[in-house]
Design goal:
With about 240 residues, this protein is of the alpha/beta class. It has helices spanning about 5-10, 10-15, 25-30, 35-40, 100-105, 120-135, 150-160, 175-185, 190-195, 210-230; strands spanning about 40-50, 60-70, 80-85, 140-145, 170-175. Strands 3-2-1-4-5 form a five-stranded mixed β-sheet, sandwiched between helices. Strand 4 (about 140-145), helix 7 and strand 5 form a beta-alpha-beta unit. The radius of gyration is 24 Å and the shape is globular.
Length: about 240
Amino acid sequence: MTKNATQNDPQNSNSNTEQPQASTQEIAESSKSLLAQRFRGYFPVVIDVETAGFNAQTDALLEIAASTLILDEVTGLFSLDETIQFNVNPFEGANLEKAALEFTGIDPTNPLRGAVDEEFALKETFKLVRKKMKAAGCQRAIIVAHNAAFDLGFLNAATLRSKIKRSPFHSFVSFDTTTLAGLALGQTVLAKACEAANIDFNNSEAHSALYDTEKTAELFCFIVNKWQALGGWPLAIEEPNQS
């Protein structure tokens, strides 16, 4: 007795098997940029501030820098994109701790600093962040910083003083490279962490917002890229044992 050829043909047999359909959510996720998928819609922006003390409410913000990042859609690797930096005039009534000024080497009274008011510095920074965030298809920026609570505290305080109603940054969520470097490299000091990651670091240039921001950005990219290379994202899914 001859069997039907269609029954014996695996290809024809498979064609009659119903394939699972992707959900609407899965289709929507796959259409997003890789950067929008990487941190659940958050857009990482590296920030560093130089200040005249430790109290965000009373002490002056003297410098701020922000670096945006890009994520290569082919390799899945992060790299530095663009940096914006401002020297900032102390707000009216701001406290200037002598020890802090000696540590950073900043002279707030130097007319050659080309300093601007907090409001202008923040608005220009936020403008760049929103532009890059929109291009990446992300909904909210998230600060990346070394000892992030410090930088985010000064950013939030300056935003409030400047009466800027809408900041692109999440008000309390952050990525702290101190913690990440401690986990990945066994170092928590920025210079030591960069050394462990083979990132050039010049101590004579440190404690300027521009330099520290870009070094922190390099460090963050190194850690995230290394995690990806080790199979950390997207997470490898083990196939179930068929035996």
